Amino acid sequence: MEVEMKIRGLMMDPVTNMPIVILKDVGSDTVLPIWVGVYEANAIALEIEKVTTPRPMTHDLLKNVLLGMEAQVEKVVVTELREDTFYAVIWVTRNGSPVSIDSRPSDALALALRVDCPIYVEDEVLKTSKQAAQISDRVTADDLRKWLEGLGDDDLGRYKM
């Protein structure tokens, strides 16, 4: 079963200094942190803040290609968490036929923001993520999840490179 999520914000992991995209369940306080690369976080941040660039970024190019091919992005789904790596699929419809495209979650999320399509996470990913946090040697993952769930709007601020 898929759980609809929204991008709640971006923040820096204070331990690893890596960007984290915070997804939040639209129907509850459940959050899912996904660590991403700096370039992907920048692409997401630019779209969140509606910053236009003089030339198309890679995700803008992908959007333009899909529009040029008269394809519609229906949704993106974070489908799996395996060995601390998240996997995602972009669902596109063209000429009435659905097509699934394998993707990194960060790229799928950046595209979802640009085409304004829904974001989903498989409920098994949410369960696996919680279990991984519980059995992990790093207490910080579980602590981070609890801390993220308690964040307010003022706590996230703007993402800074």
From TrEMBL:
Pfam families referenced in this protein's UniProt entry, alphabetically: BFN_dom (PF02577)
InterPro entries for this protein: BFN_sf, Bi_nuclease_dom
Q: Which residues form the BFN domain?
A: 2-133
Transmembrane ranges? none
Record PROSITE patterns: BFN (PS51658)
The source's domain of life comes to Bacteria
Any one Gene Ontology molecular-function term assigned to this protein's record: nuclease activity
What is the official name of this protein in its record?
A: BFN domain-containing protein
Q: What taxonomic classification does the UniProt entry list for its organism?
A: Bacteria, Pseudomonadati, Acidobacteriota, Terriglobia, Terriglobales
